[in-house]
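Researcher: Please generate the 3D structure of the following complex. Treat every line as part of one assembly.
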Amino acid sequence: MTTTTTTTTTTTRRDFLHASTLLSFGATVPGFLGRSALAAQPSDKPGGRDTVLVVVQLTGGNDGLNTVIPRRDPLYLKHRPKIGIKPADALKLTDEFGLHPAMTGLAGLYADGKVAVVHGVGYPNPDQSHFRSMDIWHAASTAATLTDGWLGRGLKQKPLGSFHLSDGKEPSPLALAGATHRVPSIASLADYQLKVSATNAAERAAQKAVISGGANPTPSPPGDLLDFVRRTATTTYAGSDRLQALAKGNESKVPYPATGLATRLKLAAQLIDAGVGARVLYVSHENYDTHAGQGSATGAHANLLGDLSAAVTAFTRDVAARGHGDRVCLMTFSEFGRRAKENGSGGTDHGSGAPMLVVGGKVKAGLHGTHPSLETLDDGNLVHTTDFRHVYAALLDTWLGLDANAVLGPGFQPLAVV
Amino acid sequence: MPNPFDAYAPTKSNPWTLAKAGHLLRRTTFGPTRAELQAALRDGPEATATRLLHGTAPTADELATSEFTAGERSLPPGASATQLAAWWLGRILRTGHPLREKVTLFWHNHFATSVVKVQNARLMLGQYRLLHQHALGDFRALLTAMSTDPAMMVWLDATMSKKGVPNENYARELMELFSLGRGPYTEADVREAARAFTGYEVTPAGGKLNPRQHDGGPKTVLGRTGDFAADDIVKLCLDHPACPRFLVTKLLREFVSDTAVTPPAVVEPLAKRYRESGFDTAQLVETILRSEFFFAAANHRAKVKAPVEFAVGIVRGLGANVGPLRLAQQLENLGQQLFAPPSVKGWDGGPAWLNAQTLLGRQNLALALTEGESDLLHGATGNAEVVDRLLEVFLQHDVPAATRRGLIDYLDAAPKARRPVTWTAADAVAHRLRSVTHLVLALPEFQLA
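Model: Done. Output below.
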């Protein structure tokens, strides 16, 4: 397996997907079928064996400056005469800061002490390519070649049950690569089954035996593409029947909005409640690349944040109602924030330094870190004040009980968000 | 040392086989039929490659049908993404020049533009025509025309970019994704180049420059300074040595292998030839497809099939009659909706196509596609012959002996299974054939091209 390229182009996610990670799938039994799955029981203290982390990826570069608004800073509306949120419209967190007016649910959760806001999160020498910067956040590394993810490396330490709740189309995220098993992507439990033509149980068993047998007839060289398909198939077939049976009949009683993100978070809540040992769940929310016409208190960006807020709020209430409120923690991130000044198209170009939200019953609620200066910009971009790896360290170490140092390398003290 | 891109010619020790014929057909079509495999085996690599490179001209009837279904009445601006995808799938199912459609799809993934944002089926069709026109033509013309393609202009916000307030979206992706790849340019290059793309507007006659909104001042991009406009920036990108290298690497991945990392020693001579040919894509593709390098055993089944290849391959192999609209709906769940790639980066492809949900989706689609009529198994007598016929068409016998044995054993045991009392003996046979076809299509080897 190659680790470097010698051409002038640095390696991208695409190269990673095509070349180097076929080896990183290890054992073929999915985490939720392993021993750890059986041990999960509710507990009220963070860092316990059964805490759950839900990662919500905001794809496209969320405009952080219009998410958490510096209400008192006169430069804010100066940079953003068209798209800026009027101080009075922002949902007040403190005198100085407010949430975007579309985020009513999250503002309520903040008032309930369930939301931590980390200001100005980023990393040194920010990259403004969507794909490279997303890879850096997924891998928690700025190395030229990125082949595994921060969660995947954590899962390698302990095979915690983990799921990618997909929209059915998106590939498995780099963040989860490197685990000892292939993390399953699930879009809907109803479709998460292998159908066959059989007309009775004996025939069904015979057909499934041929299909499973075909997936594992002879050991193929590890790292080879056929080996990859066989491993994916073996994990999938082993898990699908079990999951179908376990997740039956635990529909949510809390209403969710009819959005894709809400549907995925609803499925996450179901899995958390199903006793399948779900500890790490990964969800994406698309379309944050607001180069043009992003709107202000209403409009495209407001709709995105409104959907995010409503979905996260319903999820938080749902897991609390099911008795898991104190063992679930949800984190949002995006590959970058956006330029401090609006552009001529009523939107914002790629930037850096943006807030992360951490939501849950046991988070250290309130504001963390320092908001980036609106005056001292780096080529028009906000300068980050907290490295995202300090937040990751808290979630890996304090929350999930993994060795963050081994995942992230030295020097990233956990930020006290949990 | 022999040049890896010298043409392959069969020898006694390296003969032309069904495996090689299958390899060539899998990479150049959306899955072969039994007749195509047999013709390729009979005609040899040279004649087969020639046939694939030129295709068969569409009949007057096909042309008329495609024009009619692409007309404003069939596909109005507000036509759904699924209808639009079905239109292309209809072409893919019927075409006599599958390679050209395949390369068009490659460019669609390269200039990945989505109807979800463009919201105008007419503009998407316009971009399709541009891609199809230049698919096996001059990449310089394609890249130049793309800056004023209306669908692209809406997709990457070029329509909003004006003097004094440039929008960086198109300038960045032009360099990062369309011509150079990451590395050869800086953030300053992006910002300066964005100024050159100001003032272009979508008009009924296509993208046009409005000089009053254009920043005509001097810009410094990729080390050169001038009063650049859009075409000048495109030319600077095309002249950069990273450009042919970037494209050759991508086309090798498309045609040869998802996983092999092609060393510079292999890429460099091809990149040089591509540049010297004036970015003649047909010539580059021909060189690749005829080469020893292409036919090397390590490159067989070194790609994960895209959902379109997987599904259309089953339909073609079975000779089934499946409506493109239904196929388009199914493909959405497998992660490939034509005209709606997930982002400007396109589909990642390769191993990223497969995860638990999409794999189950593929197997379940394969089952559904075996429901219709097929005469593939006509005339096959005996269970071994049935299995061998299926393995020939769908896998060119590229499976372990134990797998073949397991399929035959399954068929041998199948007559003993309990059947609904209302079934006739013929119903039971049809069910067995359908079942074993699904089991073949569910083999891991069938996921690979």
